[in-house]
Specification:
Distance between the termini: 64 Å
Oligomer: single chain
Largest sheet: 7 strands, mixed
Shape: elongated
Order of helices and strands: HHHHHHEHEHHHHHHEEEEHEEEHH
CATH superfamily of the largest domain: Hypothetical protein, domain 2
CATH class of the largest domain: Mainly Alpha
Number of helices: 16
CATH topology of the largest domain: Endonuclease III, domain 1
Bound molecules: adenine
Helix content: 40-55%
CATH architecture of the largest domain: Orthogonal Bundle
Length: 409
């Protein structure tokens, strides 16, 4: 169990006050205008933090905006159809995240807390030139107060929700409630190991604890800045922002970094030595054969069962080839239970996720009847477009759609 976030430490690093001052000043001038920075709604901030796990900011923006339009409150998420939430998440991957979010929303609703800090997302405001983020957020918050299910405010209660670990709880409590709860993710690890010259592996237990401690010292020190309305929020976001924009893994922009004067790695010309992470294992190639089977305008698809990767999503019947050369007829027999007469190569899809380089060879054929197994269905193209598919199968669906549009009638 992580320690409570507001423990004071006997030995404060002497760099901390300088770093806090410079980071807050830099963030006030350089923060990106991201849609979730236009709200104080803890629900919207929670959604953004979950989407941003493993996913880049530019990818998340349209997903977050659509999600907040369609499910603007905790209550809306709690009662949403599981198919609808998977569809809103389609393409982001790691679908356990979305199921955990719904479970968490249902827990909050079941506990039945009604509060004032749950304001439905108001939609974007144009950001005027020179307008500070702070003034901007104040307006949004005051405009949108309304009663609804309340997102928990205590760090321990946030941490207890499904799918929320120490980083995400710290991010939500600091950004939404300005609590001095530290954050430590890949970006923050990079910044802190470089600034403080921490050469040990940051995943090692003691080093990791040392990094959390430094992150905590920084955010606690920030709250001393009484001129600032949200110092804990902005200090943590400044670390995220610096890691994303300046202190990048490759080609960091040290010459414009606001804290380079205090950075051990920069001052010692050793930026590329930090962080000291294990080399990633090389990606594994995986090959699949998939079958687009049509019967009078309907296509055979199946739903992935619970407990497997991409559970609940739909896919074209397929099999993993395990390094063997493709034998389409044999693969079709294994997957479909029959060998189609008119099997044709249709498209090749390449897709990379985490440590896998996936190739899917898709074949097209027609069936003489609509026999199907459990979890399988025959559906029209329009119906298929309402379902959620893993990315590779979404690309197959796109190819079918394009082909159908160009088919002579
Ligand atoms: N990465 C993780 N959380 C973030 C946030 N709130 N803003 C920008 N990037 C992030």
């Amino acid at each position: 169990m992580p320690r409570p976030a507001n423990t004071q430490h006997a030995t404060r690093n002497t760099k901390v006050p300088h770093l806090v001052r410079l980071l807050l000043a830099w963030f006030s001038q350089n923060a990106r205008d991201l849609p979730w920075r236009r709200t104080h709604d803890p629900y919207g901030i929670w959604v953004s933090e979950i989407m941003l796990q493993q996913t880049q900011v530019k990818t998340v923006i349209p997903y977050w905006e659509r999600w907040m339009r369609e499910l603007p409150t905790i209550a809306a998420l709690a009662k949403a159809n599981p198919d609808a939430i998977h569809k809103l998440w389609e393409g982001l991957g790691y679908y356990t995240r979305v199921r955990n979010m719904q479970k968490a929303a249902q827990d909050i609703v079941t506990k039945g807390q009604i509060g004032v800090n749950a304001h439905p997302h108001p939609g974007p405001l144009p950001r005027g030139e020179g307008e500070t983020l702070e003034r901007f957020r104040k307006t949004r918050c005051d405009e949108t107060q309304s009663s609804a299910y309340e997102f928990p405010e205590r760090f321990e209660d946030v941490l207890a929700l499904p799918g929320i670990g120490r980083y995400t709880a710290g991010a939500i409590c600091s950004i939404a409630f300005n609590q001095p709860t530290p954050i430590l993710d890949g970006n923050v690890i990079r910044v802190l190991t470089r600034v403080f010259g921490i050469g040990e592996n940051p995943r090692e237990k003691n080093t990791n604890a040392q990094l959390w401690n430094l992150a905590e010292q920084l955010v606690i020190h920030a709250t001393r800045d009484t001129r600032h309305a949200s110092p804990a929020s902005h200090l943590n976001q400044s670390l995220m922002e610096l890691g994303a924009l300046i202190c990048t893994p490759r080609d960091p922009k040290c010459l414009i970094c606001p804290i380079s004067k205090h950075c051990f790695a920069f001052q010692n010309n050793r930026v590329s030595d930090f962080p000291n992470l294990d080399k990633r294992p090389a990606a594994t190639a995986r090959r699949f054969a998939a079958f687009v089977v049509e019967h009078r305008g309907s296509f055979l698809v199946r739903q992935r069962p619970a407990g497997v990767v991409n559970a609940h999503l739909w896919e074209f019947p397929n099999v993993e080839l395990n390094g063997a050369p493709i034998e389409p007829a044999a693969a079709a027999h294994e997957v479909l239970g029959f060998v189609p007469k008119d099997l044709k190569a249709f498209c090749t899809i390449k897709h990379s996720i985490t440590r896998y380089r996936i190739t899917v060879e898709a074949f097209r054929t027609s069936a003489t009847n609509r026999k199907s197994a459990s979890l399988s269905r025959w559906l029209s193209l329009a119906e298929l477009h309402k379902l959620s598919f893993p990315s590779a199968h979404k690309k197959i669906l796109k190819s079918i759609t394009v082909e159908e549009q160009h088919r002579p009638r």
